[in-house]
Amino acid sequence: MKKISLVFSISLGLIQYTHGQELSGKENKSLKRIQNHVNYLASDRLEGRGTGAPGEKLSAQYIADQFKSNSIKPKGENATYFQEFEIITLRMAKDSTSLLINGLPVFLFKDFYPLSFSANRKFTEAKMINVGYGISAPELNYDDYAGKEIKGKIVQIDIATPDSQVAHSRFINYISLESRVKKAESLGATGVLFVNKGNPNDNPSGEMAKNIKPATIPVFFVVNSNLLFDPPNGLNVSMKSVILTLSAKGHNVVAYKNNKAKYTVIIGAHHDHLGHGEIKGSREPESNAIHNGADDNASGTSALIELSKQLKKRKYKKFNYLFIAFSGEEMGLIGSKYFVENPTIDLNTVSYMINMDMIGRLKETLMIYGTGTSPYWNEAMTDLRRDSSAIHKIKTMESGIGASDHTSFYLAGIPALHFFTGQHDEYHKPSDDIALLNTKGEVKVVAKITQLIAKTPFESKLEYTKTKEEENRTTFKVTLGIMPDYVYDAEGLRIDGVKEGKPASKAGLIKGDIILNLAGQKIQNIQDYMKVLTKLEIGQKADVIFIRDGTSRSAAIQF
Ligand SMILES: [Zn+2]
User: N or C: lower Cβ tally within 10 Å for the chain?
Assistant: First the structure.
């Protein structure tokens, strides 16, 4: 994060890696420009470019200015370079959130807390009625609501199931708390109080999900169920749910070079990073130090700006070019997803996408991921390998799904490649600094990209293919073969993509399904999911419970 004498440290980097990377006169000019971009983008002044923070705005403005000086037209919103999107940064109960039982207040966070689905601002005062598990399952001849008048009342619901089972419950279609809230709401209840009479470890999470559509009524969890004793004439309950929601704006920067060609190539790199480590993903969040993100991803961003200059040359005019600096990548590819859902050009005219993320630390191998996304890439890779003057080895991976923005385009049916110079110890730490970059190597990576673009066919779009997935080298023995939705933070784990031929896809799971239980273990979030995976063995069978279109289902997974 802190810069030591810049000139000195950069030259150290060069001594280490100059071998095979002599630059031509033109390339030296390119090197200077890239260094200038990186020096600004990864400086402490930009404070780690956290999405929605002032440093990210400065970064976006800088990129827009560079596009402008390279005479590339704006293609964001309202004739500007910017495409803004909202991110919810916080949802939490305010102190004015209250629960009164027969007129007596109980303590927020000690005796009760609101759940994620709780309405943002709602007051209700009513008689409470105990509705058991809050389940009506006509096909099982079971109805907790039978003969009860619910309209205008607050319901008390036990989070357990009538058969005390979870994974093998006959009631799997009804166990999610969200579906029980929906049921109560549909019957006219004005509030829900959940209780847990079983193991306290099963208490629902008190962390309020950020990306969720809340219910219209207050939904609280009452920690001590004895507070809701059941007197003959019922309890009078008053619930006030006041949820503070903070949001911020992320900024994609979008520019377009219209060469009146038939097809467009999208070139992208994310410009956001982890701020002071307050954004999830930092490996040293306690340090509160600026995460400069020189490699991740001032390197890719500077290459993006450089390409917007180089691709103006006549020989590249067979395509139009859309340059996008994404934000929100570190929070879960939010900016690229937003762009794909709200494109500023017709995506049907896009031939392919190239993503650059962490291309500043070239040693001898360049990684190119996504080579299975079009049959053409095989030929292209052979061509790139032929010239080994600067980059000695190219390692490819077929998968179109990975931890960067090309994934959003692959999932939208666009062939996409991801350029990457490899993992390192400083990844997602404040020490990912300029001094450690090999900017000469980056110039060579940029040259490979222009070489690739110059040779791709332009008369027709590249053919798109779904990729077979290579095994991820992780600590897990098994893989479910899904891409988790990192942005989703309500109950469960939402699937953002399913890999063909893997256990999840074989069991019929699809994008959008929300996993609530795997192998008998409750899945509240991605961490729970990881924990369960570490315990599973190849060959093992396990049940999965998930929600699709608001109803729960189950399937058997064969690992
Ligand atoms: Zn990155």
Answer: C
Q: How far is the CA of 457 from the centre of ligand 1 (A)?
A: 29
**pTM summary value:** 0.71
> Could you tell me the distance, in angstroms and rounded to a whole number, from the CA of residue 55 to the centre of ligand 1?
16
CB 372 within 8 A of CB 399: yes
Tokens of 453: 């673009």
Instruction: Give the mean model confidence (pLDDT) for residues 124-130.
Output: 96
423 CA distance to ligand 1 centroid (A)? 11
CA of 428 to the centre of ligand 1 (A): 9
Expressed in angstroms and rounded, the spacing between residue 255 Cα and the centre of ligand 1 is 20
- 444-489 pLDDT per residue, tens: 999 999 999 999 999 999 999 988 754 344 456 678 888 887 657 6
Q: What is the pLDDT of residues 526-548, one digit of tens each?
A: 778 877 887 888 888 889 999 98
Say what the pLDDT of residue 364 is.
85
CATH topology for 6-86+252-455 is Aminopeptidase (3.40.630)
Distance 276 CA to ligand 1 centre (A): 15
Query: 272 C-alpha to center of ligand 1: Å?
Result: 8
Single-letter residue type at 442: E
- Burial classification of residue 430, based on how many CB atoms lie within 10 Å of its CB (0-12 exposed, 13-18 middle, 19 or more buried): buried
- Determine the residue type at 126: A
Q: Which residues of 32-57 are buried (b: 16+ CB within 10 A; e: fewer)?
A: ebbbebbbbbbbeebbbbbbbbebbb
pLDDT band at residue 14 under the 50/70/90 scheme: very low
Q: Please state which CATH number belongs to domain 482-558.
A: 2.30.42.10
Ligand 1 centre from 329 Cα, in Å?
Answer: 7
